[in-house]
Write a structure and sequence with these properties.
By secondary structure, the protein is mostly helical. It contains 22 helices and no strands. Helix 19 packs antiparallel against helix 20. The radius of gyration is 21 Å and the shape is globular.
């Protein structure tokens, strides 16, 4: 692992460091929900907005990343992204009201949504095709590990300090990091100025609307308002697609879908990501609700899975060039099937089974997600890499959010007639369908060396 990291340039390492710190913020809040509910006297559906709002803000900005890269020098863009994140974190850290935390999280989401496709595109563009597998394996290490260690860090901080300390930690570390990295940030992306298309930007609200509708389904149900939001968002997306096909310099160049192998690789990225994010959702519930462990121990028991993920990501990158994406998908999806099966059959017997299952689910993700991102972009010419990356990251977010919603609905529905342990086990059993779908998709994979 460390050998692969040392092979990266100081600039790439700087990008990965910023991404790692900002990525952790995605998954830290769920552990703090009970404390925030008590502190601000809000219910579960309200506190959920700390995650839902973050995800919606991310999704709104991700499709804008190709335009931002083409029109703002990279150093300036990175500084703006980090500044927005720091402002949001600062507001959330000192606010006396829950609304202030929501505003802070929205700003954090905007920054993370701009950063994710941007830093992946830049690293991809500056890496030869034959080396992309290993490099993106390291990127996967950063993305996956950050998501996995988020609950661990929040569990430790909340055990001994306070929820404000979480935001203070991100603020201080990221501020020091961006200041120290100023001398190594390079403007490697070629500027291609184009007019900002406000109509496209407005129709992009459709992405956020779809994600909001998906995320709010468990709490709101299929109300008239829900249908209005979903249908309205789909109409906006249809207008967005139509607009992009007419523009000479679109926000998102949808021609990427014409290249063989891009679509299945994109979908596989989302399916594998669901295994990682569902592990971070279900395992704390198993540990805390079934085995009555503290949030601290619940977080610490996620460490082995995070370490396993970090070890496998760079290895999966090397294997992509050696055996191809199809065999990696077979391996990763099989691991996910075994992981869900363990939770479904033995999840309530001992926390040890949960620990092993989490390792298999996160390890399976390592063999698929970033290799699939690499394969998707290897199918594209260099000038479309930023567009392909933006589309892949956006769709991955939507599929991941959909998985969380399905898990929430299943757990809630099953828990009405059985114990929480039984409902969690049955939900895990149903999720075996996800890697099975992934295996069925392998026949559409096209290898690009």
């Amino acid at each position: 692992m460390f050998k692969n990291i040392r092979q990266l340039t100081p600039f790439s390492l700087g990008l990965l460091s910023i991404a790692f710190i900002m990525s952790i913020s995605q998954s830290t809040m769920t552990t703090a929900y009970p404390i925030l509910m008590a502190s601000f006297h809000v219910d579960a559906s309200t506190v959920q907005w700390l995650t839902t709002g973050f995800m919606v803000a991310m999704t709104l900005v991700m499709p804008l990343s190709p335009w931002l890269l083409d029109n703002i020098t990279l150093k300036t863009l990175l500084n703006i992204i980090v500044a927005v994140f720091l402002v949001g974190t600062g507001i959330a850290m000192v606010t006396p009201s829950f609304a202030g935390i929501i505003i802070g999280r929205l700003l954090e989401g905007i920054a993370v949504g701009a950063l994710f496709p941007t830093f992946q595109s830049v690293i991809m563009e500056n890496t030869d095709k034959e080396k992309r597998g290993v490099t993106m394996g390291v990127v996967g290490l950063v993305m996956g590990s950050a998501l996995a260690v988020g609950p661990i860090i929040s569990g430790i901080v909340l055990q001994w300090i306070s929820w404000r300390a979480l935001f203070a930690l991100f603020f201080i570390v990221l501020a020091i990091l961006i200041i120290s990295l100023q001398r190594v940030i390079q403007n490697t992306h070629r500027i291609k100025q184009s007019k900002f298309d406000w109509l496209s930007a407005i129709t992009l609200i459709g992405f956020g609307g779809v994600l909001y509708a998906i995320a709010s389904l468990p709490t709101s149900g299929l109300t008239v308002f829900w249908w209005l939001v979903m249908v309205g968002s789909l109409v906006l997306l249809a207008l967005f697609v139509t607009r992009q096909l007419k523009l000479k310099q679109p926000f998102l160049d949808l021609m990427v879908f014409k290249y063989q192998g891009f679509i299945p690789a994109m979908l596989l990225t989302g399916l594998s990501y669901s295994g990682l994010i569902i592990a971070t959702v279900l395992m704390p519930l198993f540990y805390q609700r079934v085995f009555n462990l503290t949030p601290l121990w619940s977080g610490l028991l996620m460490v082995p899975a995070a370490v396993f993920l970090s070890q496998l990501n760079p290895r999966a990158g090397r294997l992509l060039n050696q055996i191809g994406l199809k065999k990696l998908v077979y391996l990763g999806m099989t691991m996910m099937i075994i992981g869900y099966s363990l939770l479904g059959v033995f999840g309530t017997q001992s926390w040890v089974f949960g620990l092993v299952a989490a390792m298999l689910l996160e390890g399976g993700n390592a063999f698929i997600m970033m290799p699939a991102v690499t394969a998707a972009n290897n199918a594209l010419p260099k000038h479309l890499v930023s567009h392909g990356t933006a589309i892949v990251t956006t769709m991955r977010q939507v599929i991941g959010a959909g998985s969380v919603v399905v898990a929430s609905i299943l757990v809630t529905t099953f828990n009405q007639s059985m114990t929480i342990g039984q409902s969690l086990s049955l939900t895990s059993g149903w999720f075996i369908l996800v890697p099975i779908i992934g295996l069925l998709m392998t026949k559409y994979i096209r290898e690009h060396k």
